[in-house]
Structures are given as C-alpha cells and as structure tokens.
Amino acid sequence: MAKPFVNDRGFIKCPCRRCLNNASHQLEDLESHIFRNGFMFGYNQWIHHGEPATANAGTTVAGPSGGIHERDEMFDVLDDIISEDADEDAVGGPSSNDQYDDLFAALRSELYPGVSSFSSLNFLVKLMHLKVLNKWTNKSFDELLKLLKLAFPKIDLVESHYKAKKLMTKMGLGYSSIHVCKNDCALFWKENSLKDTCPVCSESRWKLQSGKRSGKNVPHKMLRYFPVGPRLKRLFATSKIAKLMRCHSTGKSKDNDVMRHPVDGKSWQEFDKRHPQFSGDVRNVRLGLAADGFNPFGNMSLSYSMWPVVLTTYNLPPWICMKAEYLMLSLLILGPQSPGKDMDVFLRPLIDELKELWVHGLDTRDAASENGVFRMRAALLWTVNDFPARSSLSGWSGQGYRACPTCNEDTPSMRVIGKTAYFGHRRFLPTNHHWRSNLQFDGRTERKRPPRRFSMTDILEQLRRVKTGIPGKHPNYGRVKRKRGDEELNWRKKSIFYELPYWATIELKHNLDVMHIEKNVCDSLLGTLLGDPHKSKDTDNARRDLAKLGIRHELHLFEDGNKLMKPAADYTFFEANRRKFCRFIISVKFPDGFASNMSKNVAQNDSCLLGLKSHDCHVIMQRLLPVGCRSLVNKNI
What we know:
Blueprint: E1 11-13, E2 24-26, H1 27-37, E3 60-62, E4 68-70, H2 74-90, H3 101-108, H4 120-134, H5 138-151, H6 161-173, E5 176-180, E6 187-188, E7 208-209, E8 212-213, E9 221-225, H7 229-235, H8 239-244, H9 247-250, H10 266-274, H11 276-279, E10 285-291, E11 307-313, H12 318-321, E12 328-333, H13 343-359, E13 362-365, E14 373-376, E15 378-385, H14 387-394, E16 413-416, E17 419-422, H15 456-464, E18 510-512, H16 514-529, H17 540-549, E19 558-560, E20 563-565, H18 575-587, H19 614-628
Parallel strand pairs: 10-15, 15-18
Antiparallel strand pairs: 1-2, 3-4, 5-6, 5-9, 7-8, 9-12, 10-11, 11-12, 13-14, 16-17, 19-20
Helix pairs in contact: 16-19
C-alpha cells in the first residue's frame, strides 16, 4: 500500500517506535526497523503512507504508554537531525539513532500530567533559549528549576543546568573542552592528551595546591572548540537554506565595476580558476574567519582578554551571511592574556578540521536536491581582523619600520618623536594627480610609483628564511626574545594557515575590518578638529616633528617670553565654530533605522562628541562631516 508513496529519492517515513514518522528510510530498510523497534503507538490512520486523513488525523503522536500528545514542533527539529543518520544508512553507513533515545524519551513525555501542548523537551529548549537571551547565570537557572520542581511536583524536567546542557549536546549543540598549557606552549590534545606535563616547558597540566595536585584535576587553562562540519551539514538539512547556499553562483553582479558579494571580487574568481574541482560544485562551502579580543567584564579594572574565533559562510546572500544566527563560533580562547604570537597553538583543532573538509569532505544530505547525498567540501578564503589581530594571524609584525604588509620590505617609514611614522601615501595617486606636485605635504614632489606587488613565490621564499621559534610565554622558552635577522624582514613566524593545501594560492589572505579602522580615524579626526586634548593628533611633539623636518613653518612652536606658544592651525575649529558644529550634529534628523540619535553624544557644553559607536562614525565620515565643516574651515582643507 505504501510503495507508491515513496519520495523521488526512494525514501518513505518510518513508523517504528524510534523514528515516529520523523526519519525516512528506503523500503528495504523499513521492515527491519519495524521488526527491531516495534510499531509506534497511536498511528491508526496511515496518513504518511497513502491513507486519507480525517479531521483529527495527523495532528497527534502517541507516547509509549498509549497516551496521545498533540503534534510538537520539536519533531521537525529532530527530523532535520536524524535524517542525516537515515541518509548514512542509505549509503551503507552505520546507524547512530541510539544517541537520540534520551531526546525521544523527553519528546514523548508530557511536561505535566494532562498538559499536551508542551513536551518536556520543547519546554526545556524554550527555557534554555530564554536563559541565553536574558543572560541568566547558571546558578539562577538552577534556582529556577528548583522552584518549578517545588511548585509543580509532578513536572517532568531536569534538575540542573548541567543535565540540561548535557541533553542539548545530543542535538549537536555541544563543544569539546581542550586543556592548554598555562604558558600557551601546547594543547593537551591528540598525541598530548594523556600527558600531565607540557611537552615544551614541562609545566604541570593541573593546578597545584601547596605543590601537590588537589583531589579533583583542574586544568590551568581551557580551550573550547565547536566542530564546524556538523553545523555546515545542518545548513543543507532544510530546503530553504539549502537553496540559499547556491546564491553565490546565481547572484553575481552583471556590472563589472560593482561588487555586491565577495564572489564578484578578483580573489574569489582566481581561487575558482586554480581549483576547478572544488568550484565545480556550487554547494561547496566558502568560509571567512574573524577573530578579535575583548574584555567580558566590561570596563572593570580587571585585565582580561577573551578571543572568539568566528566563521561566516559566504555561500549565503550578503544580507544573510552576516546575521548573527548564521555566524558560527568555532573557538573560544580564554584569557587572562591574549594569545598574541601563540595564536597558532589555539588554531590547531580548527586547521585540522579544515584540512579534512578540503581533502575528504563530508557526506551531506541536501534537502534541495534530487540526488540527496553529496560530498561537501569547504575552504577558508580569508580572514577579517583589525591590524593588531592581523599580525597574530598572518605572522607579519604590525610594528617597526616595515609594518605595512602590502609594501612589505619597501615600506617608507621614519622615526619621529616617540613613534614610527609612515609617509609616501601620495605614491598611490594617479601619476597626473595635482597633489603629487603639491609642496605642502613634505616640501617635495612625489614621483614614485605605487609599491610593487609581491608574488606568491616571493612570499614563500621570504617565509622559507624565517626561523622556527619556540611557542609559549614561559620565561625560559617562548618568552625569550629573539632578534630577527635582516633576511627575515618583519616575519615573526610562518602562519599555521599555510598548512592548508590551498592557502598559498589565495591572493587576498587577510582583510582589514573597515568599520573598526573607520572608527579610529573618525575619533582622531574629530579630536583634531574639535581640539580635544585626549584624542587630537595635533600635539606638541607633532609640531616639533614639523620643525625637525623643515616643513610647515607657520605651525612651528615658538617662545614668547617664558611661554611656549602653539600657533592655531587652519584645520582646527575656534570655540565658536566648535559649538556651531556640535549644534549642527544635534539638529540633524535621520530616517528611521538609518543612524542613532547622535544628539545624545554631544557634550553638555557643546565642545566635543562622546561615546560614538562604529556605525555613528561611519555616518559622520560619509554624510555629515563634509556638510558640517564646509563653512567652518579654510577652503584649502
């Protein structure tokens, strides 16, 4: 009877007690499932196998005791998860449905006797969601569970947050905890997983009390790793998202001068040409990596740096791929110190998985394809960071006379009072640009061409000359300062990303976060215009540097008796103009959702702007600054 109702892939829903019509199998496997697990209770009308449904049919699912429960939305969630195992059965792989027994038990149990609108699993998932949204602590969550147990003695609910998290892990929401050496020398992982001391510095893996290990082994440091492969497979489990994973191939810009998506960029296109086997299947995943440190304790005096490593999927359309629900946390590096040059130590689990996804891939069920299962591969296209984080990831130091990673060894720089300055930016202008002949910059005309581009062979040759250092922060090992030789240029290490087979062929390996840089530039620019002594770049040392270079004589410091006088510059506002500019910012009205209310960022005395966010700085730089300064500064500015 059911044979004519198989889907186009030859699968049909399984009515055994374990699958509950949520997993699909081929007909030859259906009989063994029912024989082994028994027929599900309450499935009297075969609505999934050809029998016409009545008004009440298809809206209930039976529990093991024969009680009828209303259709629960968690069935659809488990269907997406278990269908992957069903497809593995279809291609000859082993079934792993045993791990879902606890989930099905919670799904089939009533939350409270007589309550059929909620299963125990559904209520727990919603409760955990509220915990995350409202930032409840684990202790407050435990207290809430105790209160519910006390108020409703017959409620079927877990006793603690630990048990709830353990149950959620079976839904693919877990992570791996990897112990780390206290000096960031190595991970106690794979070949080091059974060791009690660091293989580099020989420090103990465990915290000691009075020189002895405490009763319970507590590691000095922990790395939390969230596997990427299962979450990439989950993107193809629903037909809607699976179709969106192909948008990068169909949504290319038809205008050569417009870039709407990274697929329109040269780096993506060159990657596809060099790896035609990978680019031949549009479902193969392109990833981007972002990492940066932050203090989870806010503005407290406690110094602590936590580094999340986040992946984004560029297969998705540009209006979706950057949404929070599609960003994947892959690593969480705990402090208190930032990883710095030892970032590669923490990236090891992720790099190993990325190599596996490139070389072998994963069998993945594609809900939007008639073929069903395909071999999904993934590639990391680039990283996105601010400049200090770029140094930790790329291995090229962002300090010193050769700090520019683009100019490389040709970086034009000089030493000024207290810091290193970089000049020669006019060389990037067209050769006939009038600013090249303007003497107001440094007293000279600019005739140099843009810096040369270093080829893949040039970079690999430079990295071949880099000496391998000892990782970690132990004072006798990794922290010992090593003077770089001239042949090493500004390279501190060869990045772990070069272990990826395709990394050397990528043209654009590291991107700078524009919004982050734009905020820093905006703060400095506004501080200089408004004369903010804490943020202005027009300092006394800057004026002394002008005198040392012999340029901008009208801005040099001079003595007036016993006082050192600082001439007013054309690029700074007088007090009256400063107030006019601040009142202009207060008077601007934006459309809904375009920008925040910037009038709240203006100081009470109309002298400066405070607390600007990244998007506020973007709007000021792109929209407000040209208009607001037009009548307040010299036309030459």
